[in-house]
Design a protein that fits this description.
Radius of gyration: 29 Å
CATH class of the largest domain: Mainly Alpha
Largest sheet: 8 strands, mixed
Strand content: 5-15%
CATH architecture of the largest domain: Orthogonal Bundle
GO molecular function: ATP binding; protein kinase activity
CATH topology of the largest domain: Transferase(Phosphotransferase), domain 1
InterPro entries: CK1_Ser-Thr_kinase, Kinase-like_dom_sf, Prot_kinase_dom, Protein_kinase_ATP_BS
Pfam families: Pkinase (PF00069)
Bound molecules: adenosine-5'-triphosphate
Helix content: 25-40%
Keywords: ATP-binding, Nucleotide-binding
Protein name: Casein kinase I
Length: 667
């Protein structure tokens, strides 16, 4: 295997692909304490609230969509706070297959995959066609309770922290088949991915990123986000590059609160440490509790939670997790980004957790005597690991020498000033107890100290991150300027000024998995889903007409790629046989129009404007743009033309012979 390949393999293993975080069952991992983030604690608090939650669950989905406004209002009335409880909705198809629907959300495709869950890009059928990210638990983890716990924590953080710290919490949607946590869709990439993009341009194939970027991402982005979380009593417990996602420009959010936990409990709880009062009024309070909080008693023994690559030695040693450990992990993230790797990176990739622990303990022993190892770089660490394995495999008779050369460590590791900065930061953390607040300024200043580069450390070969332009912007522009080659129907401004969904939401998606409309272009799948949804959800008629047109026009005027869209992949559009999928879509489209009385009602073209508090609301014309030579000013005539076109297309298709079955091949 080439060195490059090997390195790549290591790299792939070091972050999200192969982490070894443990997943607690029932959303909590305490063995000897209360359950501060058990969602049920916050739901079953009083009979009244339990009833309200039941009624919220029974509410038709279209009225409880979006920000779960309904429950929030009800809960506010009761003076109690309920975080992240599930809303019962209906499901069409198997969510999150592409094209499936969960409540108001239509699934567009997969965004990412973690150890126990996958994340999917969705679009809401609601007013703003809002994009969302849906987190869904994978097979074995479906009943683990982690999703409920995550919904509780995210909802709490979203309501308690300054805007933009975490993704907007939208809701926790449950059907009879599954559940999903819906949150704001973050269009940027996560830090792990951003680093991979830089790595691809590094001439020496190192995993390093520019010092300036590593400093910014950790000291100016991640650390303040963690500080905000700690101030409301939540520890993240899985700090790593892939859990920090870019929103836009230089703004980032922390994500993934599946392992997060509150370190605060009600002052009268059995597990409260009465000697350590919680200083802030914000913390994850149990339902109907408005009293003060205390730190939770430190547990004598805690199970490992997190990722071996970045977990603090205290977590390896079974000490109870506290803010100190999040910050410790952050320092490891910094060393990893700035130098390209960590001394135990190959052990972490091989899930040798005990070896990772031993390495970390060795480095931090004797006031961090061996701290320079943290900056030696990935090439050095990978070679050192191989040497060690080779020596271990050699028989006793050998001369105890390895044939694998050790490359020169990164010059940063010889810069005493920088090594001392790290030593100082780790020394501070190692002195902290469970109840202590880290000195965030000290940590930040230690990382900032790396900006003073001496000549040996200057990284001329590493590209800096480009913050201004994102690839999706250029794609968006490309889509907007695409020429229109068939008649279009566009709802210019609707009653509430809503604009139509932008094609760009369908860009840059990696689509996997099966679909109810499998094989059709994603954008079209969404439009068919929207058209069908409108039939049953009392959407205003002019919108229903607009959505229907978005399906009917491509069916009539765009080329139907039978090879891709029909079963078997062996078809052409001119093979003379009936295209069953095409026919069924034509029929479904016509049936939708018939349900709406073929859009003959005047309300398709006019609406009542009741936005102002006018006792006699005005009837206004719906603004539509029809791009068709003869029907520019007559939408009604245009609609009739399309209806006739659909009927004719159905007749023509039905008249064709059934296609022969797909040939079976055993090769
Ligand atoms: N709100 C979001 N918007 C866009 N992408 C997101 C969002 N949340 C998460 N992602 C992407 O999905 C990836 C996995 O998400 P997350 O970490 O929550 O899942 P996980 O199963 O807990 O992963 P892991 O096991 O690696 O910790 C993230 O690294 C990020 O790239």
């Amino acid at each position: 295997m080439m060195v490059d390949d090997e390195l790549k393999q290591e790299n792939d293993c070091n972050d999200q692909q192969h982490n070894d975080r443990m997943v607690p069952t029932n959303g909590d991992d305490d063995q000897d304490t209360a359950k501060p983030v058990d969602p049920m604690l916050f739901v079953k608090g009083s009979e009244d609230t339990a009833q309200l939650i039941d009624s919220a669950a029974a509410t038709p989905l279209h009225s409880s969509i979006g920000d779960a406004t309904l429950e929030k209002q009800q809960i506010k009335r009761l003076g109690a706070t309920v975080y992240g409880q599930a809303i019962q909705v209906t499901e069409k198809g198997v969510f999150p297959a592409v094209g499936s629907i969960l409540g108001p959300y239509f699934c567009l495709g997969k965004l990412g995959m973690g150890t126990f869950s996958s994340i999917h890009k969705c679009v809401s059928f609601q007013k703003e066609n809002r994009l969302a990210a849906a987190k869904v638990e994978l097979g074995d983890y479906q009943q683990s309770g982690v999703l409920e716990s995550e919904a509780t924590v995210l909802d709490f953080l979203y309501r308690s922290l300054p805007k933009g710290t975490v993704p907007t919490y939208i809701g926790h949607y449950k059907s009879s088949k599954g559940a999903a946590l819906l949150m704001e869709y973050l269009p940027g990439k996560d830090m792990h991915y951003m680093r991979e993009e830089i790595m691809a341009t590094n001439k020496d194939s190192s995993r390093r990123i520019a010092v300036k970027d590593a400093v910014y991402l950790t000291a100016d982005v991640m650390l303040p986000l963690l500080k905000e979380m700690h101030q409301v009593g939540i520890v993240h417990r899985d700090v790593k590059p892939s859990n920090c996602v870019r929103r836009q420009g230089k703004e980032f959010c922390m994500v993934d609160f599946g392992l997060s936990k509150s370190i605060v409990v009600a002052a009268d709880a059995e597990v409260a440490d009465k000697d350590h009062a919680w200083p802030d009024s914000r913390w994850l309070k149990p339902l109907n509790y408005n009293g003060p909080g205390c730190y939770r008693k430190e547990r004598a023994k805690a199970e490992f939670r997190g990722t071996s690559m970045y977990a603090s030695p205290r977590v390896h040693q079974g000490r109870d997790y506290c803010p100190r450990d999040d910050v410790w992990s952050l320092l490891y993230v910094f060393c990893d980004l700035v130098s390209g790797g960590l001394p135990w990176m190959s052990y972490a990739a091989g899930r040798e957790r005990e070896s990772c622990q031993a390495f970390k303990e060795r480095i931090h022993a004797n006031d961090g005597e061996e701290s320079s190892l943290l900056l030696m770089g990935d090439h050095y660490h990978v070679a050192a690991f191989k040497r060690e394995k080779q020596l271990a495999a050699q028989s006793q008779s050998s001369d105890g020498r390895s044939t694998i050369p050790l490359p020169e460590p990164h010059p940063m590791s010889k810069d005493e000033h920088k090594v001392n900065l790290l030593r100082k930061a780790f020394r501070h953390l190692s002195e902290l107890q469970f109840y202590d607040t880290p000195d965030y300024t000290l940590i930040q200043e230690s990382i900032w100290g790396f900006l003073e580069l001496n000549d040996a450390c200057k990284e001329l070969s590493i590209e800096e991150m480009q913050w201004e332009s994102t690839s999706s912007t250029s794609e968006a522009d490309a889509v907007k300027t695409r020429p229109v080659n068939h008649p279009t129907w566009e709802l210019i401004v609707s009653a509430d000024g809503e604009s139509a969904i932008d094609d760009t939401v369908f860009q840059d998606l990696e689509v996997r998995g099966g679909s109810a409309y499998g094989g059709l272009p994603l954008e079209f799948q969404f439009k068919v889903g929207q058209m069908e949804y409108n039939q049953t959800h009392g959407v205003e008629i002019h919108r229903t007409l607009n959505d229907w047109m978005q399906v009917a026009l491509p069916l009539l005027y765009k080329e139907w790629d039978a090879k891709k869209f029909e079963d078997g992949g062996h078809r052409t559009s001119t093979d003379g046989f009936r295209r069953d999928r095409y026919l069924s879509l034509l029929q479904s489209c016509l049936a939708c129009a018939k349900k709406e009385d073929c859009f003959q009602s005047r309300n398709c073209y006019y609406y009542i404007d009741d936005r102002e508090e006018d006792p006699t609301p005005k009837k206004r014309k719906v603004e539509i743009q029809v791009n068709h030579e003869s029907d520019k000013h007559s939408p009604l005539v245009f609609v009739s033309r399309v209806l006739v076109g659909l009927e004719r297309a159905i007749e023509l298709e039905k008249a064709k012979k059934s296609p022969p079955p797909v040939r079976i091949s055993f090769s």
